[in-house]
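Subject: sequence -> structure tokens, single chain

Hey, anyone have a minute? Need the predicted structure for the following. Not urgent.
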Amino acid sequence: MAIPAVFSRNPDEWRALHDKHFMIVGNGSIGGALALMAARSGVGQISLFDNSAVKEENLGRTFYGLATVGKLKVHALKDLILEVNPQAVVSTYSGDFRKLIHEGFVPNRANTLLVGATDSFACQSLINVLSLETDNPALFVSCWGAATVGEILYVKPGQTPCYNCYADFRHTAEEIVDDSQKYFDPDFDSTRTASQPGLWSNVLIICGFAFQIALALVGNGATGSMDDTHILFIVNAGDFNSNLPFWAVSKGLVRRGCAVCEEATHV
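Reply:
Had a minute. Here:
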């Protein structure tokens, strides 16, 4: 198969990635950046999940432009992907991800990497369960505070602890008490964190490192630093008061031990 001209400067990556599938849940600053990194690297199939539309407040820390305001993020992001790689197969899902999973949605192919880039513990936990049930690896990426610190965790079913082994404490997070939506919206997600300020440059630093983990998970990156025990990576992208050195990446130990993966995986 001939290499498309757009990938002439990364032909080896294209050969390794053109038959891979990235399923990206959450298409905001993190999910959008990772989707476009995947497209520019040659990933051949990308599925996008997000039920929200682009707002003006999103423009300062995403690839979206003024012309996309009011457009569903999945559609705006699909257009951006196809501008780079028109041969990519891009599927969009704008429904509530929690409902899609409860209705029985599963990835329709192998070679899939599940990417959780949402601000909802409920959604991240469902991605975790989907990873365990389909035996596909998963990558969870988020920011702390004003995007000064990034949190990256990967899951390999049967080989690593799962997302809930590490993050189950978030299940008991307090509701967003000042959001009146919870009183009239039956689909209100009380595990969703409030929007935070943050620089686009910091988000890209975090996503750049996360994408290296993504490449390793699909077999196209250095795996020497992945021991399947220290599966948590903390990236200091701008917290000068942190105990972490500036721009440093720290690996964290995660131990298996939760009801979610106990039955679904084996040691």
